[in-house]
Amino acid sequence: MSGIYIHIPFCKQACNYCDFHFSTSLNNKASLVSSIIKELDYRINYLPDKKIETIYFGGGTPSLLSEKETHLILEKIYKLYDVSSSAEITLECNPDDLSATKLEELRSLHINRLSIGLQSFDEEELKWMNRAHTASESEASVKRAQDKGFENITIDLIYGSKFSNLSNWKTTLNKAIDLDIKHISSYNLTVEEKTKLGHDVTKKKELVIDDEKSAELFIEMVERLQKNNFIHYEISNFGKEHFFSKHNSNYWKGRYYLGLGPSAHSFDGESRQWNVANNNSYIEKLSANDTSYFEKEILTENNRFNEYILTSLRTIWGINIDYLNTHFNADFISTFKKEVIAFIKDETIILKDNAYILTNKGKLLADKIASDLFV
Ligand code: SF4
After folding, report:
1. CA 38 to centroid of ligand 1, rounded, Å
2. Boundary of a domain, candidates 196, 220, 252
3. What's the pLDDT at 291?
4. Burial 148-164 (b: 16+ CB within 10 A, else e)
5. Per the domain annotation, does 287 fall within a domain?
6. Ligand 1, atom 6: nearest CA belongs to which residue?
7. How many angstroms does the Cα of residue 270 sit away from the middle of ligand 1?
8. Residues 84-106 pLDDT 10s
9. Ligand 1: distance of its center to the CA of 280 in Å?
10. Residue 4: pLDDT above 90?
């Protein structure tokens, strides 16, 4: 079983922190959808089998697609693949797009999981981020989606801007808990160079909070969400039982996925490939049958080992010893087992049920620990 990711590279406006690939010009939306449908035909032999367990519309803002555009993409996928009757079909959306009519359209398209980009409940912070919605629109959109029958809802929250402090973060977390949603993804604001925020921080016009304060907010989030029946199953992801993201869990478990659309990445176990991050170039190359719209990297055993360490260590399932034994050479495993002892001694990793798993103390240092365990 594999997954399909579709990148929809359009947004109403540019958030000040965002370095994903998107355009605020929606002029060539229809051509881009046609190109994605063409790419589906091109890539028909990419996945080793035709069984699909998850479909994920990400972006950008996929809720900007019309009902017809979303339908055309799904129709093609169902025509080419054997999509499981219990497939998880996620669509990322912004609160301002989720009118009652839009939600009814999404239900009729069999979208069964909504990922709503709330980011914050603070009006001032949302304005500063240049989000296209208000906090009251965010809360109303979640309630409307629930009323329309969407049970599987996740929201995104960002912490670590100059507006963040422990008191308002507690309020944010309480509001999220009160919404009775099933899943939360929450990210520490990172300052990316090619964004407005990155530019302003470089020019010293903006400040971000330090690592110590971010760690305090992270700890508060983990404790508060765990007390409210959210399972912390990946560093940035919390789900109630039976509501973990199947699509993202499959990424972290090394399953295969086909990525369609500009900037989308794909993985087939042996290589990674990524599409050109330019809408016009993507459309032009596909319409000219020019297959240079992607680049590809064959993964060495080192690459695969390090990726497995990085992604699995961030999850509740940890680094599995059986997986290491069946996928990697004895030298890598022996080096890893020597290196990991130091982390067990300083209580950042525990060995449990045949897997090396981060402790809460270790979660604060996940990326550093992973890189120390790389070969
Ligand atoms: S809506 Fe999402 S993808 Fe678009 S600019 Fe904002 S954060 Fe980035």
Report:
1. 25
2. 252
3. 87
4. eebebbbbbbbbbbebb
5. no
6. 15
7. 31
8. 999 999 999 999 999 999 999 99
9. 19
10. yes
Whether the per-residue pLDDT at 214 is higher than 90: the answer is: yes
CA distance 325 to 322: 5
CB-based contacts of 205, cutoff 8 Å, min separation 6: none
Ligand 1 centroid to Cα of residue 20, in Å, is 7
What is the pLDDT of the chain when averaged over all its residues? 96
How remote is the CA of residue 21 from the centroid of ligand 1, in Å? Answer: 9
Please state the atom number of ligand 1 nearest to the C-alpha of residue 130: 6
> Which residues span the domain enclosing 337?
318-373
The dihedral sign for the CA sequence 45, 50, 53, 59: positive
What is the signed CA dihedral for 77, 80, 86, 87, rounded to 10 degrees? -40
| Cα(71)–Cα(107) distance, integer angstroms | 12
Say what percent of the chain tops pLDDT 90.
96
Domain total in the chain: 2
Percent of the chain with pLDDT over 70: 100
pLDDT of residue 338: 96
pTM for this model (two decimals): 0.96
Give the pLDDT of residue 209: 80
Which residues does ligand 1 sit against, CB inside 6 Å?
11, 14-15, 18, 20, 22, 59-61, 94, 117
Atom of ligand 1 nearest to the CA of 60: 3
Single residue among 234, 252, 270 that ends a domain in this structure:
252
Does 338 share its domain with 218? no
pLDDT band at 69 (very low <50, low <70, confident <90, very high): very high
The confidence band for 210, taking pLDDT boundaries of 50, 70 and 90, is: confident
Distance CA 295, CA 20 (A): 18
